[in-house]
Amino acid sequence: MTEEEKISVLIVDDSPISREVLQTIIETSPDFEIVGLATNGEEAIDAVDELRPDIVTMDLNMPIMNGYEAIENIMAYNPTPILVVTTAEFEKDTNIAFEALAVGALDIINRPQIPDDMDEDIGEDAQEFLNKLRMLSKVGVITHVRGKLSRKAKVGGYQRSVQKLVVIGSSTGGPKALKEIFDNLPPDFETPIVAVQHMSDGFIPGLVKWLDSSSPLSVQIAEDGAQIESGNVYIAPTGFHLTIKKSGILEMVDLPPVNGIKPCADFLFESAARVYGSKVLAVILSGMGDDGAQGSSAIKASGGKIIVQDKATSVIFSMPQNVINRGCADAVKPITEIADEIQKQLTYY
């Protein structure tokens, strides 16, 4: 890769140690060039305007101006791919991180660590970080001025017997897409939803809290042995595959990752097809790879329906594209129309 082809990176972090860690990891790959370092949000805004990097790594908790405010400004005036780099164990940062997705950041990742022996291997965390930078640097972003979110009164869950089920698979770009769907389903939406969202370890609790805060539905982390109930949304936890047993019981399965992914949407989809048959509606949202494609084929074979997010509104179109390529998609819709499409498709069941 020539100098002209290298991916230019701006690192934004107020901690000298954190900046050094990210810089050290990035410099292990010839694919990247670090074009600048910033220590707060104001410096980040100026650096993006001057340097026009291909991608920005953004810390959140910084002096003068925090990362969220910087992202909001950058995406409004100089749209640039931004990867939020934070630590999942701090609840305040995870809450801000998901709000950062709402104003245009593309993804969130745990701050990577440098292994003791960098000469042998940079480590899985560092490799995941570099892979995210490569992938997201190629994403076309647009001006993103956040509108006010309407806060709707949440209603209690329903106890009626479950006859139909919605299952969702999503990855990069998924959190924002999930929020768009859940916020725009009506308070009396009865069909339960079970979703798999690929995320770095530790971020699912923050995601669930963020989604639940503005949705009229009850969004919660799926628990082993829980009975699926109408009016609820269940999000798979990190570290287990999520399946559905007979009578609508959720089950966590501790099997190896599939193509490096755990939880895997295919596990969920295939089990849903076995239990609910033609009463399953699957939704495939933005994401890298082909997770959900095999499961969509199983749902299609059982008589169920498939909705996929369109290319124009997907951050990464691979997951929806693979479902389309298999001939499984019954509807291809922009994210703003998927909540309505879900309700429309369910009327046919």
UniProtKB/TrEMBL annotation:
A single MF term (Gene Ontology): methyltransferase activity
PANTHER family, alphabetized: PROTEIN-GLUTAMATE METHYLESTERASE/PROTEIN-GLUTAMINE GLUTAMINASE (PTHR42872), PROTEIN-GLUTAMATE METHYLESTERASE_PROTEIN-GLUTAMINE GLUTAMINASE (PTHR42872:SF6)
Residues with PTM 4-aspartylphosphate: D59
Domain Response regulatory: 8-126
CDD domains: CheB_Rec, REC_CheB-like
Active site positions: S171, H198, D291
Entry annotated with the keyword Transferase: yes
Record keywords: Chemotaxis, Cytoplasm, Hydrolase, Methyltransferase, Phosphoprotein, Transferase
PTM summary: Phosphorylated by CheA. Phosphorylation of the N-terminal regulatory domain activates the methylesterase activity.
Enzyme class: hydrolase
UniProt catalytic activity: [protein]-L-glutamate 5-O-methyl ester + H2O = L-glutamyl-[protein] + methanol + H(+); L-glutaminyl-[protein] + H2O = L-glutamyl-[protein] + NH4(+)
Pfam families found in the cross-reference section: CheB_methylest (PF01339), Response_reg (PF00072)
Organism this protein belongs to: candidate division CSSED10-310 bacterium
Role this protein plays: Involved in chemotaxis. Part of a chemotaxis signal transduction system that modulates chemotaxis in response to various stimuli. Catalyzes the demethylation of specific methylglutamate residues introduced into the chemoreceptors (methyl-accepting chemotaxis proteins or MCP) by CheR. Also mediates the irreversible deamidation of specific glutamine residues to glutamic acid.
Compartments in which it is found: Cytoplasm
Family that this chain belongs to: Belongs to the CheB family.
Entry-linked Gene3D superfamilies: 3.40.50.2300, Methylesterase CheB, C-terminal domain
Name of the protein described by the UniProt record: Protein-glutamate methylesterase/protein-glutamine glutaminase
